[in-house]
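Entry — protein

Goal — fold tokens:
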Amino acid sequence: MDLGKNEKVRQNVRSGYAQIAQGKPGGCCGSPSPDKLAEAIGYTNEELGALPDGANMGLSCGNPTAIANLKAGQVVLDLGSGGGFDVFIAARKVGAKGRAIGVDMTSEMLSKARAGISKFTEKTGLSNVEFRLGEIEHLPVADNSIDVVISNCVINLSPDKQQVWREIFRVLKPGGKACVSDLALTEELPPEVRDSVSALVGCVSGAVLLEETKKMVISAGLTDTQIAVKKYNVDVMDNCNDSLYQSVREHLPAEKKLSDYVVSADFTAYRKG
């Protein structure tokens, strides 16, 4: 494993998402209307209405809190929690006796998320949210302490995805589950796109084949893996005017669209009890 290369990838991602946290458009979806994007992939108006301002930055490619079927009292961990979007939504679902924890490696995102906690408490009366600084390959979370791990369009950004899935297994309680929404490939990207930093920050070049992800999940020790490819059209990203995607479009063959290579998928797996 090329540790130097991996750290360079992390630095590129950290830099890109720091800029997004500070107001530059981009990321996994680059949507000009975060609420419309969220509604299109299954978030309800009630869920969005309880969010503190700025938590939804249009960086989702799925709705892991829905597929997780969260229950009151559970402890939920969100990998790459950004501005806290899914953490705040999960916190309402698990209630006062539960807990929602977010981990992110970008300090600017962490500051944004933490700034929203007091507003969330004012709106909901809940004080069950926490955000921690850390890398998803080395989670600042105790062994066997989490009921449900969620993640939304983040694992594809990691330079060591197998290690991420190992960490998911480690922190889950026996009987716990992982519910991940992410981008995945149905065929290999052109080399020019795969090697593009802009495409990486845009969650495209870091995506891997569906079957490759399934192998990593099984190798980590998780079982009962389920993969659902969703109807959400990634061409909404390809057609946006964000600078991250201008570079991607330039390197795609003329007859191809982004959706010919990339799909949005939900991955669900369990740690045996």
Summary: The chain has one domain: 3-182+209-231+264-270. DSSP finds 13 helices and seven strands in the chain. The mean pLDDT is 84. Residues 3-182+209-231+264-270 form a domain with the Rossmann fold fold (CATH 3.40.50.150).
